[in-house]
Amino acid sequence: MSCLITMSQKELNRLEAVQKIKDRRLSVIRAAEMLSLSRSHMHRLLQAYKRDGASGLVSRKRGQPSNRRHSDEFRNAVLDLIRERYHDFGPTLAREKLIELHPIAVGKETLRQWMTEAGIWTSRRERKQRIYQPRARRDCLGELVQIDGSHHWWFENRGPKCALLVYIDDATGKLLHLRFAPSENTFDYLQATKTYLEEWGKPIAFYSDKHGVFRSTHASEKDRTSGLTQFGRALYELNIDIICANTPQAKGRVERANRTLQDRLVKELRLRGISTLDDANAFAPEFMADFNRRFGKEPRNPKDMHRLLAEHENLDGAMCRKEVRTLSQSLTLALRQGDFHPRSF
User: Residue 344 above 50 pLDDT?
Assistant: First the structure.
């Protein structure tokens, strides 16, 4: 019974024919015709069945490597050659060049499988980019503000590579604040956000990526603030939510704005000969006004969701670096080396 379980359909058909021959319900010639076999092959099957039973009809090659199977050494040599000279070739073209120049003959599908398993080639179906459904804009100004940093050669060869901190409203697509900074760091995000809040007020939420400035991997279930970054703690004190997107496509508004800025803003800085952070930050309001006039949209709801600071909320006290230390019995505290970095306060 166990033999029947492992038999293929072709072998089961042969077993049925052999049993009919043994029962004299079918002739050898008729059975050979039905199975598309020669008479001599049919007689060999009868002898195998008589000698070993049903297991005699099972192919002895099952579970054995094919005689046409290439050795691991040959496969590795072919892949090394492809990596060296044909790393950006598809399987069909790579096979043609292997035959033409080396000469090495490998089946196209075999080579395709080898290159796929080795990570050298990816099929068009797998290369097809995932399509993301556009997310509807929020209704009101200040309901959701996307923030991101774009590290780029903003001054081309006239100055150093730096970061542009971008604040863009989700409902209108308008730039609400730009700040040039040496890099994406906590100090400059706090300073930029402070300026933003002084001008516009508090939005309902900021929408960012999972940069270390915005998101900590050491959150505590008992204390909501213990797992926040300095930036997240500052927003928590001011009752502003921070939402971290899982993918770049989720915050597509600011990602697309960055691409536009890397084209238009770079050229505007070039025309004005601007090559320093201070001069670029001074020019930013003029550029934002022109950008918003060209690309900004009216919100579906005219209500402005920005909120004023409450009387008990201290903007300077929130937008700064804070460290928790324990006083010793002598009323002293210890600070790590580097805590007094000039850009930390």
Answer: no
Distance CA 206, CA 168 (A): 10
165 forms beta bridges with: 149, 179
Q: Which of 260, 224, 223 has the alpha carbon at shortest distance from 241?
A: 224
DSSP strands (E only) in 245-315? none
Confidence of residue 12 (pLDDT cuts 50, 70, 90): confident
**CATH class of residue range 145-318:** alpha beta
Residue 222 has pLDDT above 80, yes or no: no
What 3-state class would DSSP assign to 141? strand
In terms of Cβ atoms closer than 10 Å to its own Cβ (0-12, 13-18, 19+), residue 131 is exposed
Pairing of strands 162-169, 175-181: antiparallel
Mean pLDDT, residues 218-243 = 75
CA distance 236 to 167: 19
SS (H, E, C) 165-195: EEEEECCCCCEEEEEEECCCCHHHHHHHHHH
For the chain, the structural domain boundaries read 2-57, 72-127, 145-318
Tokens 């300095």 belong to residue: 230
pLDDT at 246: 75
| Angle in degrees, CA 91, 93, 98, rounded to 5 | 90
For residue 136, give the 3-state DSSP assignment: coil
Enter the tokens of residue 147: 């923030």
Residues contacting 312, CB < 8 A, separation 6+: none
Contact by Cβ (8 Å): 152, 164: yes
Report long-range pairs for 309-314 (Cβ below 8 Å, ≥24 apart).
309/197, 309/201, 309/202, 309/238, 313/237, 313/238, 313/239
How far apart are alpha carbons 234 and 60 in whole angstroms? 73
3-state secondary structure of 104: coil
Q: What phi and psi values does residue 305 have, to the nearest 5 degrees?
A: -85, 0
* Unique residue bearing structure tokens 């201290």: 314
Query: CA torsion sign, 238 to 343 to 193 to 185?
Result: negative
